[in-house]
Amino acid sequence: MLNEHWFGFLLIFIRTVCVLVTFPVTSYQGIPHLIKVWLAAVVAYLLFISGSITLPSAANLHTFSIIMAIGSEVAAGLLMGFAVLMVINGFRMAGQFIDIKMGLAAAGIFDPQFGSTTTLISQFYYLFAIMIYLAIYGHHHLFMALGESFSVIPLGQMSWSGAALDLFLQKFGQVWLLAFQVSAPVVATTVITDISLGLISKTVPQLHVFLLGMPAKIFLGLLIVYVTLPYLSVLADESLQRISPFLLSLLEGVL
Questions:
Q1: Is the pTM of this model over 0.85?
Q2: CB distance 72 to 158 below 8 Å
Q3: Is residue 3's pLDDT more than 80?
Q4: HSE value, Cβ hemisphere, 13 Å, CA-based, for 107
Q5: Other CB atoms within 10 Å distance of the CB of residue 170
Q6: Cα–Cα distance between 114 and 24 in angstroms, integer?
Q7: Structural domain of residue 193, as residue ranges?
């Protein structure tokens, strides 16, 4: 009986750790790993003592079933965390589109969270999306979805289906559409600026369009970012509010 309870707690802990590892806030490299482990242990213990999770039978505890159950919990946790990260990264992609058109792609900064170089506007949009997600208590909904996931997918019983794959690919396409929607005003402005500068260079060949074009595009791009920021918060609110229903529908499609 003791083995059954300890193994059940281990599976809950593994799924919780995998969610926190990929969740944009707790996955930050600046947070000590010991704090992440303790946070996952506390959340897993609260879920364990709630009594709403069906523990696996002790009669099935052999080596192969233990390995399969652990792999199932790792996949379920990573799937939930990556789903949240994918939507928030849509704003990051939008910022990268904007930086490329504004000419700020070369002004990259090192992002310790992803271990790679990122651009300025993309990092701003990424942090802005995380701020909106926390403001609408998205982390609360994530933990509630984590608790409900044990009812949808019992411990150690995850299996992939075609419906879940279709839903995931559909959401992936929606994230790309979101990135294009967020970056469209700035991209359109820079394209119009390039066309205008091209016409000016044909009209006045003596004018150094390249020297004037770069500051003009940066100024107009930042101006449009500032003007569209209130509308961006509304779009981010609507997009991030749909994460929790997407998580539950995705987990239901996994079975």
A1: no
A2: yes
A3: no
A4: 13
A5: 10
A6: 10
A7: 2-254
Q: Which residue has the tokens 């009669």?
A: 59
* Overall size of the chain counted in residues: 255
- The pair of three-digit structure tokens given for residue 60, joined into one six-digit string: 């099935």
| Contact (CB, 8 A) for 167 and 253 | yes
Q: How far is CA 84 from CA 6, 100, 168, 197, 228, in A?
A: 29, 25, 12, 41, 24
| Dist. CA 55–CA 250, nearest whole Å | 22
Lookup: tokens for 94:
């939008």
> Which tens digit of pLDDT belongs to each residue from 25-83?
777 777 778 888 888 888 888 888 876 777 766 666 677 777 887 888 888 888 888 88
- Residue with the two structure tokens 């930050």: 28
What is the rounded distance in angstroms from the CA atom of residue 137 to the CA atom of residue 142? 9
Given the DSSP bridges, would you call strands 109-111 and 116-118 parallel, antiparallel or unpaired? antiparallel
- Count of domains forming the chain: 1
* DSSP states of the chain: -HHHHHHHHHHHHHHHHHHHHHSTTTT-TTS-HHHHHHHHHHHHHHHHHTS-SPPPPGGG-SHHHHHHHHHHHHHHHHHHHHHHHHHHHHHHHHHHHHHHHHT-TTS-EEETTTTEEE-HHHHHHHHHHHHHHHHTTHHHHHHHHHHHHHHHS-TT-----HHHHHHHHHHHHHHHHHHHHHHHHHHHHHHHHHHHHHHHHHH-TTS-HHHHHHHHHHHHHHHHHHHHHHHHHHHHHHHHHTHHHHHHHHHHHH-
8 A C-beta contact, residue 50 and residue 147: yes
Instruction: Report d(CA 164, CA 249) in Å as an integer.
Output: 8
